[in-house]
């Protein structure tokens, strides 16, 4: 189901195609095989396997330079300073429902209550509430750079025993080979360097541990692409796979998720659109070596430029608050079984 060509109406019909190599292209050089688990695509390294390229990635190439006004830690910090007030009441109902959360966490394989789990970019703890259904709260650490978001997490009774700390997803305060599971939902879109964040996920996991990153998918509709590129990072599916592979992960899988009222439509992009998992095959640090971090949060910023970016980014983000309302209304108006 997940390996499909998605048209404007997104009929879920598998189509076989040869995909060109290279990140950001229509496809990737990672052959996929169907998983028996619904909604999953597994990426393997067998060069003789042909690739099934999802059309949700067949959008126009993005320009080399992107404004992405909120894809920076300082802008994201202040963005959530205000959004944290209404996050659980505005964002979750339209973009990150309980059903979506539980479905997205399923590939993480949280089967043991004694597992050590880190929830990176855990924010208000909404995703963590799904984690502690399967893992004892005392074994879970919530990390986020926003004290305002974490303050909301601390108020939730099921999370009282969780360890809650401020930190940077690209420079985690955990030792190598520390956790059984790494979870990050709705965070990668704000990382200036996603590859570095996924490399850190590899480092902190124990051998055999799983990373599960839940995040946006890039739109194919032109207006949605415009606002996505202004607001924050909306990766393509093959970009997720490339980042995981380069970090050293094996058995990489993608599971597509979305609100029920979208009826599978993904042309507008989804703030929570896919759950990507990978396994750490060897102990120790990631084989990938990187240079200095893209963004130094301690470096002074031009206040006018900073404020302009924050305002423009918030305006662009408002578009994606309206999209779920639009899709919900279409679902109510258009008869079931008809493409929307």
From TrEMBL:
Residues 117-126 are annotated as: SAM motif I. Residues 68-277 form the MPBQ/MBSQ family SAM-binding methyltransferase profile domain. PROSITE patterns: SAM_MPBQ_MSBQ_MT (PS51734). Residues 203-216 are annotated as: SAM motif III. Gene3D superfamilies: Vaccinia Virus protein VP39 (3.40.50.150). It comes from the Eukaryota. The keyword Hydrolase does not apply. Keywords: Membrane, Methyltransferase, S-adenosyl-L-methionine, Transferase, Transmembrane, Transmembrane helix. InterPro entries: Methyltransf_11, MPBQ/MSBQ_MT, SAM-dependent_MTases_sf, SAM_MPBQ_MSBQ_MT. The chain crosses the membrane at residues 306-329. Residues 162-175 are annotated as: SAM motif II. Belongs to the class I-like SAM-binding methyltransferase superfamily. MPBQ/MBSQ MT family. This is MPBQ/MBSQ family SAM-binding methyltransferase profile domain-containing protein.
